[in-house]
Specification:
The chain is mainly beta and 92 residues long. It has a single domain, classed as F0F1 ATP synthase delta/epsilon subunit, N-terminal (ATP Synthase, domain 1), CATH 2.60.15.10. 0% of the residues lie in helices and 62% in strands. Strands 1, 2, 3, 4, 5, 6, 7, 8 and 9 form a nine-stranded mixed sheet that branches.
């Protein structure tokens, strides 16, 4: 599935991922390929991204967690939408 992380300043990430864990306002949740369509408000926290191809990650703003192909990104809140096989994260 494709993930886009967008902030008011820039596109932080665009690429193929295998899973995304998000800090929802009602608790943390994970999105995998084939997930039902969803729109969720997000609270401040950590977005955890598992990428399909580690070499495809060029964003310097993603933090390498030290685990194979897993990165993180801190947000101050936002909104996530999953539709089809695409996730768009609008982050503060």
């Amino acid at each position: 599935m494709i993930l886009d992380i967008l902030t008011p300043e820039a596109q932080i990430f665009h690429g193929e991922v295998t899973s995304v864990t998000l800090p929802g306002i009602d608790g943390e949740f994970q999105v995998l390929a084939g997930h039902a369509a969803i729109i969720s408000a997000l609270k401040p926290g950590t977005v955890v991204i598992s990428v399909a191809d580690r070499s495809a990650v060029s964003s310097e703003q993603l933090i390498d967690t030290g685990k194979a192909s897993v990165f993180s990104y801190q947000i101050n809140g936002g909104v996530a939408e999953m539709l089809g096989d695409k996730i768009v994260l609008l982050a503060d």
